[in-house]
Each structure stands twice: as structure tokens, then as C-alpha cells.
Amino acid sequence: MSCSSQEDYKEQLPTALEAAVGKAPSEDALDFEERFAAIDRKRLMRRVDLRIIPYICLTYMVVRLDLGNVANSGTTNSEAGHSLKQVLSLDAKQWAWVISCFYYPYMFSEPVCTFFVKLTSPSVWLTRIMVSWGAVMACMAAVTNYGGLITCRVLLGLFEGSYFTSVIYHWSFWYTPDEMAPRVLFLYVANSSVLFIVEGLLTVTLGIGMYFILPNWPSEYIVAHRHRNAPKTTDKTWVTSEILLMFADPTFWFFSLFWACYAVGAWGISTVLPFVVLDLGISDSAGTQLLQIPPATTGVLMCCLSAYLIRKRNVSAFLCTLGPPSAYACLWPRRVAALRGSSAAALGIGINNAISQLSGLVGPSLWRSDYGPRYINSAKGACGLVAADFCIVLALWWLMEGDLTRHPWLQRRVLAQTQVSEADVEAEKRGETIARGRA
């Protein structure tokens, strides 16, 4: 990215006052600080949390059900020949496609569909996802053959795609990256498993409720406390210069590489975990379901511990990332902090979460049944990918929080809100508030 492009981008940035109120200064805007001086920010954010967090966590718990219930249904009652795989008479290759076909439409829809959050509104778009996804999930109860199961799984991936990225994008309008960290970790705790029909009907009901309950965009006060280049409702939906700057930023490529390695190395086994546990010969199908509780419980505890360390002890999110399985949850706020502008935020969030779907595309191949029953080669491959992530996290930590003044060519390209860019320096000279803080 050349200096001239930096200057062009700089000229397009709004002033801090314009960014805060979404319009040119007026008489009401001149006493901006006085109007908000009496507001208790902690109390306000608690009210915001009560409006947004519980309902989003509840809907996210339901939306994530389909990622595990198919694998579980493939092993449940296998001794009696009544598992889903046996009832539909599916061979190993067909079952692998049942698992993987969900992730193809899911992966390719996320970068594009995230923009619809701003083109419509968060409540409308998330309602569309919930209702359409729930309707297809309920239809899975009527599946009687391989073709019907594949069709339902593909439609599920298409309709569910962009739910998580839409939530993260929506939250980037409400919270600073620092405030987002414990909330994303709490969101990752919201996972469970129930039957197809129950979850389908519940999802439709929650989706309709989403339209009436979810607040769309934050007020002036909340906007004013975020970085001036954080996503704003007044921004254009697509700004080419923001997208080009994002692709020139090395943090984009490091985050993408981390997401890919972690998806396959750490999460790849989750798509076939019931079969791996069953192949180990430790227990029958019923015991296999129970043996999935310890890793899930560990994940919940790690997320809670990471949220406490980040929020209460000011421990760096990059340090907490070294304790899987909370790595994704810890890094999402940092991913948002590495983006400037609404267009870059929508596309960047969408691309990275799309990459995470490699867990369902590559994971089943890494943990193939012919590698069992001990899966030594699979474990070696997974450990190698997680080890690579360790090095990537160190690089990201330095790029976002390290001193880049000795590397001006690199400093010009890193757009993280935690780093001072040329545009920030010029803005501070003009007396504007950067409000960057600790991301």
C-alpha cells in the first residue's frame, strides 16, 4: 500500500464528531460531551447486554445443533442396527458426504451474506436465517433415503451460513474489541444437542422472536466510545478502498492462516468424534455419547477462565489463545480490532469464519476410519497444525501490539486499531478523538 493510497484513504475518513453522530456538527452536537457526561457507562452496557446477549446465546445454541447431531445419530443405537447410518443403509463414502456436504454452501455463503446485515438490518437478517434454517431442520424428520438427507444438509449449510459472522459483525457496532472479548467467549459456551424436530420448531420460534427483540444499531453515546474507524451505520456498505487496504494488511493473512490450521487441527475431530470414540472400543454407543461430555465441559471451563483473565486481570487475549479450545473465542475480538471500516469488517469476518468450515471439509479426511482404531497419524497431523498456530499467534501478537516503528513499510500496512496509523496521527493533529484504547 503506497503513501498516496494512505492519503486518499485518509481524506475519506469522517471527523470524530461526524463519526459519533452520523452527520455534520449542529448546535446539539457542539455540547456532545456535556450531554453524555451524566451517563453511567457500566450501567448502560449492562442494559445493552441484557437486550442482546441472552437471546443471541440462546439462538446460537440452537443453530449449532446440526453440527453434532448428525454424527451422534450415526452411532446412537448402532448395536441394535437402528442408527441413522444403518437405517438409511449408507456406506462409509456416503456417510462422509453427509458430514461434508453441509460445509460447502456454509463456507461460500458467509463472506457474501454478512453484507446483508447492513443492507437489511440485524433483526431482519438473523430472523431470516433462524426461520429458514429451522424449517429445513424440522423436515429432516421425514428423511427416508440418502438423497433426501444430502438435500437437507446442503440447504442447512446454505441457510445457516453467515449466522455467526452476522452476530460478530452486529456486535462490532455495539462493543469495543475489549468489551467484545468476554461476550464472545460466553457465546462459545452456548452449545448443546437435542432432537431434529424439537430444535427445528424451537429455531423457528426463536427466529420470529429475533425480529421483535434484537436491537439493530447503537446510540450516539456507544458509537462515540469506539475507534473512529470501527463499523458505523453511516458508512457505505461497500467501499473498495477499505477492501484493498484489508488485503494489503499482513494481519489478514496471518489470521486466515491461523483460522485454517486451527479449524483442521483442533476442530476437525469434532465432526467425527462419536465415530472416533466408538472405534477406540472404550464403550458402546450410549457410552460414546457420554464420553463427549468431558471435552465439551473442558471447553466451557476454558472459555469462562479466559473471559475472567481477559476482562478482570487484563491478560492479553493472545496469551489466552494458547489454551485451546478457547482460541477462536479469544481471537474474534482481536480479529475485529484488526479491521477498519464497515466494508472491511463485513468481508473480513465473513472470510475468516468461512475458512473455519475447513473443519468439516478436511477434518473427516484427517480422522478417517482406516486410520483407526488408535488414529496415531491423525493425532500427529492435528498436533502439527496446532503447533503451527502457536507460531502464528506470536506473529499476530507482535503485529498488533508490538513496536513497529523500526519497520515503517510494515507499519503502513498494519491497520489494527491497536496500532497508530498515519491517518490516526493526522487526526490527532486536527484535535480529533481516536478512542483506540486497548483492543
UniProtKB/TrEMBL annotation:
The keyword Transmembrane helix applies. It is found in: Membrane. It comes from the Eukaryota. One of its GO terms (molecular function) is transmembrane transporter activity. The chain crosses the membrane at residues 95-117, 129-148, 154-173, 185-214, 252-278, 290-309, 379-399. Keywords: Membrane, Transmembrane, Transmembrane helix, Transport. The keyword DNA-binding does not apply. It is a multi-pass membrane protein. One of its GO terms (cellular component) is membrane. Signal peptide: none annotated. InterPro entries: MFS_trans_sf (IPR036259). This is MFS general substrate transporter. It comes from Rhodotorula paludigena.
